[in-house]
From TrEMBL, chain A:
One Pfam short name: PhoU_div
Family annotation (InterPro entries): DUF47, PhoU-like_sf, Put_Phosphate_transp_reg
The name this protein goes by in its record: TIGR00153 family protein
Ranges that cross the membrane: none
Coiled coil: 45-72
Similarity comment: family membership: Belongs to the UPF0111 family.
Biological source species: Thermococcus indicus
Alphabetical UniProt keywords: Coiled coil
Length: 224, 389
């Protein structure tokens, strides 16, 4: 009976995981770019940064596809608005990674003090942690639905959300540390160098900010 | 008519198994075709009511030719409506279609007084009751299912213990249903004690041992799905068998009436059905499955990814339980409607990820128009036959 094909509309959850895969890939590529940047390998960094840009485009395309398929005519396990806002936040994680890549490209990294570089690299690694956790969170959300919203699976989801929040806090701390460092070295640093470092830091911390927003949205999906 | 039943309904019996990827569409066609034929030929009623379910008052039909023309009109009308519904992918009840067809010609022939409105009221009631009870049952079974397995501290251990229980319980229902629907038994107690419970215990023990021997995975989700995947093949097969045994009457009942008039020159309330007519009906259903049903199941197999094995099993289990309880209470319940209700019930338990609301609305509308539309088509055909004849 054809009705079975029509009765079950395409659920957005598997495509959301597909989108999360690309987002994670984007952030992982950014980390490679940061490592090349750390090693002052501008050409290597450039290649990775361009790849980040391409991956962000792929994420955008998947996002559009999901949006187009999510009509209000669906009865879903979670509210449509929450799914759409979640998707927006998840996509913002890739956007933030792309912004960082753009900032990395604007100048050669030889002027950055090692201490600042260390902090930035650490921020990058933490960002990957956040992106990985977002990926884990949406995969877990799928399991929450598979299980028919059972306590155990919801608990596991809350644990991932808590970890995302803690990573975000960690990055915030590193961000503050970097700001202090830049201002402490203001005399030995040009205005442009300081601006460059701070913007890399800002866009990097944006990754975990958006990851946290996405996690918040998942929390809402479970509460309704 | 039998072809249309095969195309519309029989594909339905296997669709949860195909949708949940328990079997391929090709396998489904072979299994459904064989079981539908077996059900229709070996277990189809050898005596069938010519004026199905007492919709018309037989004392008001004095001319046997009216019965012949009327039966042909009702059959054609039901077939036309079923084909239209199948084309639009709407799961309408074949029983309701034929009832509409019969009422249609009856009204044209002798006015509204010939129709047993009490019976018709029951039919209308079944439109409303079937999906609601199906939804409630599926909701409860799905919740009980998740509570007993997924919500436990050690879901893998719970799955090992509870899966055989649920499968065994489903087979208690199926065994009893086999007695009532396939063997056309009357006493529910006999069905439960002689068929249901023994079958349930056998299935429980076999499943328990099989799981003990080899649990498919340490992950309860994957493991449980793998177990129910196998159970689902059997439940779907049962649905096909029972469907063949029961619904063949919708196609051959009016044929039997025509046959009775042609051979004996009279038409009664109940007539014996020769085996060859049952075989024809069974063959028609099997051909319907193979020709159109195949296409339907192939699409189902390719497109539905939202129906897991546990959910497919829950739908089969709920539908069987509701139909059984309804037979016991004497309520006119439609299996098709119950199944759709069950799907929605699981959706309400937040177990299905996305259901198309528009399609649900279309299905409900199609249920309400089945009897009147089949009636109107039948009335027109009957009138034409009376003029020509």
């Amino acid at each position: 009976m054809q009705v079975w094909t029509k009765l079950f509309a395409k659920s957005p959850f598997k495509p959301l995981i597909k989108h999360a895969d690309v987002v994670l890939n984007t952030v992982e590529t950014l980390e490679k770019a940061l490592q090349a940047w750390y090693a002052c390998d501008y050409e290597g960094m450039r290649e990775f940064a361009i790849e980040v840009d391409r991956l962000e485009d792929v994420a955008d395309r998947i996002k559009e596809e999901i949006r187009d398929s999510l009509s209000s005519k669906l009865m879903m396990a979670v509210a449509r608005e929450d799914v759409l806002i979640y998707l927006h936040m998840q996509d913002k994680v890739a956007d933030a990674a792309e912004d960082t890549a753009k900032w990395l490209l604007v100048k050669k990294p030889d002027c950055v003090p090692t201490e600042a570089k260390d902090i930035i690299l650490e921020m990058g690694m933490e960002s990957i942690k956040a992106a990985k956790l977002v990926h884990e969170a949406i995969v877990q959300m799928d399991r929450v639905i598979e299980s028919g919203f059972t306590e155990g699976e919801i608990k596991r989801e809350y644990e991932i959300i808590r970890q995302i929040e803690s990573v975000e806090k960690e990055i915030d701390g590193l961000d503050t540390k970097l700001m202090q460092l830049v201002f402490e070295n203001a005399d030995s640093m040009s205005w442009g160098d300081g601006f460059y470092i701070l913007n890399i830091a800002r866009t990097l911390s944006n990754i975990s900010d958006k990851a946290k927003d996405a996690a918040e949205r998942i929390r809402l999906m479970m509460n309704k | 008519m039998a072809w249309a039943i095969g195309a519309n309904d029989a594909a339905n019996s296997m669709s949860t198994a195909v949708g949940a990827k328990a079997i391929t569409p090709k396998q489904a066609v072979i299994i459904a075709g064989l079981l539908e034929f077996t059900g229709a030929y070996f277990f189809g009623k050898s005596v069938t009511e010519t004026i199905r379910k007492g919709i018309l008052d037989p004392t008001m039909i004095t001319d046997p030719m009216v019965l012949v023309y009327g039966s042909v009109a009702a059959l054609l009308a039901a077939t036309i409506w079923l084909i239209i519904a199948t084309k639009f992918g709407l799961p309408v009840s074949t029983t309701h279609s034929i009832i509409g067809g019969i009422a249609g010609y009856g009204i044209v022939y002798a006015g509204t007084a010939i129709v047993n409105w009490g019976k018709m009221g029951q039919v209308v009631l079944s439109w409303i009751l079937s999906p609601i009870i199906g939804a409630i049952m599926a909701y409860l079974i799905f919740k009980a299912f998740t509570k007993s397995i997924f919500e436990r501290k050690d879901p893998v251990r719970s799955a090992r213990i509870w899966s055989p229980f649920w499968i065994g319980l489903a087979f208690v229902v199926i065994g009893t249903m086999f007695y009532i629907k396939v063997l056309h038994g009357k006493d529910l107690k006999t069905g439960v004690l002689m068929y249901g419970i023994p079958l349930g215990i056998i299935v429980f023990v076999v499943t328990y041992l099989l799981i003990k021997l080899r649990f498919p995975s340490s992950d309860p989700f994957i493991g449980v799905e793998a177990i129910f995947k196998k159970a689902q093949v059997v439940t779907s097969g049962y649905v096909a068998l029972a469907h063949g045994a029961n619904d063949v009457a919708n196609a051959i009942g009016p044929v039997a009436a025509v046959y009775a008039v042609a051979t004996m020159g009279l038409g009664g309330m109940q007539v014996p059905v020769p085996k060859w007519i049952l075989a024809m009906g069974g063959l028609g259903i099997a051909v319907g499955v193979a020709t159109y049903g195949y296409k339907v199941m192939e699409t189902v197999g390719k497109k539905i990814t939202e129906l897991t094995n546990t959910r497919g099993f829950t739908i089969d289990f709920s539908a069987a339980t509701v139909v059984l309880a309804a037979s016991w209470l004497g309520l006119p319940i439609s299996t098709t409607h119950t199944v759709v209700g069950a799907v929605i019930g699981i959706g309400l338990a937040r177990g299905v990820k996305a259901i198309n609301k528009d399609i649900v609305r279309d299905i409900i509308i199609s249920w309400f128009v089945t009897v009147p539309v089949a009636g109107l088509i039948s009335a027109a055909i009957f009138k034409l036959l009376m003029i020509v004849g």
